[in-house]
């Protein structure tokens, strides 16, 4: 029986819920729940939605603490439609303001509750701000919100929680939050005002002001890209086409008849090139709108030191990396010898899942940066090649993921599949990079690209080990190849 009340949530109840969500980044770590802060009740006449900040304190060697946003909706009676999002049930004591049974659910799963956010945005004048209880809502001018749009929670895997409001808008509620400006909101605000055609326009955002008047940016509302399909899904489709034709031929015909990436029905190379142009356009606009700087030799040495430290931390978390450490470290040593390089605001965690192809071209989403990095690091000017490297890694992931699926159903086709998967990756990486760069890369640019590609693959081994252990072999193989080069 839980000892929770609405005013004093039971840490064990919260922990049990948080640990089973996709958005919780600390899975598998030794931790306890620290302070639980009630930020306030969302304004509006619907069900009571209370927004909480839950502190997670890590008790392992790496230590640290994170704050997660957990909006809860409370009902008197159980809501069977929300059973999957039940956080806890308890009896409020007789002397409580509302004694009796209480059932607490994750509010993002409840249509009635998510409509509260939409109403709060819509009640704010376009181009203005409005304070309601503990929250401040900001609206960007230029779009009339559809208040009758039906909310539905994005069903895919996510670091945050997104709710689609019909075909009008999409709201992202940030789960891991930090005080100050949220980079996703900041970048979308700047790029929307600058008229970018490569992002979904920002419509509004919600923040909480703490006792010192500092903002905590909690959620943003954006243009819903109605015709969007994400790049990851499209890439998987293209690889599946290729491998389906490949396995048929591998079993039936001789090598001369093999299907190549360029000949398969769903060739992705044209899209990869257009995506390269779009990423370039976003980078150019970011360089225009945010400060840029020329990093010097000392900065290059500092960058190399960071890459080395990240590698060492990753080896501690994923011991299989140890045998490739020296090869990767040698690449980072070359970065330390660079005389300088350009830095600017970047995306920070770019991969195919952050790209959406629409009838009006490719759009880039999710400018929050790498989820595991501290905020100060995520907003700092960085090399564009970090983002390009993220995309190149993604062009390696897609064929490897599909190949795993095919392996079970098509024994005896390993060599053909492996060759075609590598060819798909090579072809699409080249098309993306050529379109992005518009010419040959200099030796320094190539070195930075290689180093960031290694760093991303190393990061992915940790990410996959914690989140999708059966996929860890994909980035491990890439690290091994880089280490052996
Ligand atoms: N403006 C949009 N319109 C339509 N779909 C979107 C939009 N923004 C994001 N999505 C979809 O939601 C998914 C998750 O969004 P994302 O910003 O990457 O969330 P997270 O920060 O949780 O990873 C994207 O991969 C995409 O499929
Ligand atoms: O999208 P997020 O900000 O949550 O990014 C994290 O999760 C991504 C997976 O969803 C992860 O990306 C890795 O897997 C992708 C395929 O699912 C692949 O396309 C990427 O290249 C690969 O890095 C990302 O690294 C992580 O930060």
TrEMBL record:
InterPro entries (UniProt xref): Kinase-like_dom_sf (IPR011009), Mak_N_cap (IPR040999)
Enzyme class: transferase
Stretches assigned to the Maltokinase N-terminal cap domain: 17-110
Top-level taxon of the source organism: Bacteria
Catalysed reactions listed for this entry: D-maltose + ATP = alpha-maltose 1-phosphate + ADP + H(+)
Keywords: ATP-binding, Carbohydrate metabolism, Glycogen biosynthesis, Glycogen metabolism, Kinase, Nucleotide-binding, Transferase
EC number: 2.7.1.175
Pathway: Glycan biosynthesis; glycogen biosynthesis
Self-association and partners: Monomer.
Protein family according to the UniProt entry: Belongs to the aminoglycoside phosphotransferase family.
Name the UniProt record assigns to this protein: Maltokinase
Taxonomic source organism: Nocardioides fonticola
């Amino acid at each position: 029986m839980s000892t929770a009340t609405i005013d004093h949530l039971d840490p064990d109840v919260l922990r049990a819920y948080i640990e089973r969500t996709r958005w919780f980044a600390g899975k598998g770590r030794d931790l306890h729940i620290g302070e639980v802060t009630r930020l306030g009740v969302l304004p509006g006449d619907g069900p009571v939605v209370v927004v909480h900040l839950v502190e997670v304190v890590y008790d392992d060697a790496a230590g640290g603490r994170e704050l997660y946003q957990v909006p809860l909706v409370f009902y008197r009676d159980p809501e069977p439609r929300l059973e999957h999002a039940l956080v806890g049930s308890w009896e409020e004591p007789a002397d409580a303001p509302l004694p009796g049974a209480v059932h607490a659910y994750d509010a993002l799963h409840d249509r009635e509750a998510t409509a509260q956010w939409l109403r709060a945005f819509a009640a704010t004048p376009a181009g203005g701000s409005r304070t309601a209880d503990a929250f401040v809502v900001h609206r960007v001018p230029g779009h009339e919100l559809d208040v009758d749009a039906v909310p539905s929670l994005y069903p895919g895997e996510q670091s945050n929680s997104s709710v689609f409001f019909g075909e009008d808008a999409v709201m992202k509620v940030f789960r891991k939050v930090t005080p100050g400006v949220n980079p996703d909101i900041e970048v979308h605000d700047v790029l929307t005002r600058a008229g970018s055609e490569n992002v979904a326009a920002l419509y509004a955002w919600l923040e909480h002001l703490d006792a010192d008047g500092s903002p905590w940016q909690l959620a943003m509302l954006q243009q819903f890209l109605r015709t969007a399909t994400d790049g990851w899904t499209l890439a998987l489709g293209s690889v599946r086409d290729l491998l389906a034709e490949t396995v048929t031929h591998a079993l039936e015909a001789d090598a001369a008849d093999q299907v190549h990436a360029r000949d398969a029905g769903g060739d992705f190379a044209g899209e990869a090139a257009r995506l390269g142009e779009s990423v370039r356009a976003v980078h150019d606009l970011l360089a225009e709108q945010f400060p840029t700087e020329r990093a010097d030799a000392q900065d290059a040495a500092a960058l190399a030191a960071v890459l080395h430290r990240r590698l060492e931390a990753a080896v501690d978390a994923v011991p299989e990396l140890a045998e490739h450490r020296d090869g990767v470290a040698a690449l980072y040593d070359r970065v330390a010898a660079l005389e300088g390089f350009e830095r600017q605001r970047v995306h920070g965690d770019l991969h195919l899942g952050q790209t959406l192809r629409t009838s009006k071209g490719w759009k880039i989403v999710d400018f929050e940066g790498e989820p595991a990095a501290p905020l100060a690091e995520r907003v700092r000017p960085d090399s564009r090649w970090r983002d390009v490297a993220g995309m190149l890694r993604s062009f390696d992931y897609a064929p490897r993921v599909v190949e795993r699926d095919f392996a079970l159903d098509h024994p005896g086709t390993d060599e053909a599949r492996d060759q075609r998967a590598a060819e798909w990756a090579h072809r699409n990486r080249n098309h993306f990079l050529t379109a992005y760069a518009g010419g040959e890369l200099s030796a320094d640019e190539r070195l930075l690209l290689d180093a960031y590609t290694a760093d991303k693959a190393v990061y992915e081994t940790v990410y996959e080990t914690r989140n999708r252990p059966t996929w860890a072999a994909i980035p491990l193989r890439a690290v091994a190849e880089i280490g052996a080069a």
